[in-house]
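ingest -> validate -> predict -> emit
validate: passed (alphabet ok, no gaps, 446 aa)
predict: started
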Amino acid sequence: SPSSAAAPAKSFAQDLLFGFNLVCKFTEEGIRQTREVYNLMKRRQTIEQDYAKAMAKLAQQYRAVVPEEKRKRRSDSEPSLWVACYHHIEQIQNIADLHDDYSSSIGRQVHDVLATRARDEEVTRKLAVQEGQRHQKELQDAYTALKKMQAQAAQLQKDADEARDGCERARNNFQTKDSTLAKLESKAVAAEEKAAAAARQLRDQEEQCTAQQSDHYDSIMPALLQSMERAETERALLLKSCLQRATALDASLLARCTEACSSVARVTEAVDVRYDMDEFISNHPVEDDVDVPVTAIVGPTLKAHLDVRQPSASKPWKDNLFVYVASQRRLYQYESDNSMHPRFVLQVPTGDRVIRPVDSSLFLRSHCFQIVTRSVTQFLAAPDSDTYRLWMDTLGAATRPRRPTLASAVTVVRNLQVKVTEAKDLARSGDYFALVMLDDERQPRR
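emit:
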């Protein structure tokens, strides 16, 4: 059709790479479509012998088989297979004088072909779905194993640090015997070797996960989706061909309905086997979906474990995985490395003070910063200075306005002295005397 010819080509592998479940649902609907048309022709073969009354009953029953939206949009100009099916069902109402010859002809040319191919299509689709599910599980298992190795490596590193600290304390104690010191030194070395080996295994697993993820989305899934798309195209072509044969039989056997049969033939001939697939793909975009698992984010700009807490002082810090995708300006927050759904997705805005450093005195820890938008404020803590600098620089550059604003011309005050001249009714307990607020925002505490 002119509309589909002008539109860019769509495909499962390109437009639904991360929508394997959607493709499975669509192909399942295709199998159902073939089965329903197959049942339609089978029953028609029997009912044709009962002439007009039985044919009218069949048409009435099978109008409900076609999806409701296709029934409402059954325009001759819409090149949909379902629209063609519905036109064909309506045409059955007008076929009341068919004889045994028509019944045997439609059985040989349509019913028997669909009966054979429908079974083959179901087996082919079932194998493809099982293969895709197996590959998805393998990728998920790899990231689950990575999470376990991360925990093991962290524990071994902790044990090594404790062993080394114990050795150093013993070394500084003049009463420690040489034999005892030697045993502690040997234990510390062994613990450090275990931690180093675990770290190497962790790096290997991370590389394996990255390679497996790349292979999954660059090779395995595109090839599988292309195979499913070819099978679906062949199925649609077969269904179109069968409908054409049945329509041709109508036209040849029903002289009184020649004009009506010609109309159905034109609708069927105009079927674009890509139309239903293109319409389905257009109505189910995946690339803009924010509810995606961690494994579906390929090539993030930033990815690290950060501690997070809300402004409320009653809530403790929690370790979460944060992923920033600069091309989408989205910051994803996940509970773990293999989470299927994000806890929170922030569309990073532009502003002079969206990303702000936090004084170490506020939470009694270093490398803290905050993200402030109109809807949310979050405090984040990086594990080290390098991670802190990387996230501050990257997010700061992403949120900084391109054009100079009035705020950029204001003098920046980096040091502020506050003198407390009098303090009454101080609590006897507590680890600070004052909390400094600037523009209703908590700064340091002293």
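The longest strand covers residues 302-309.
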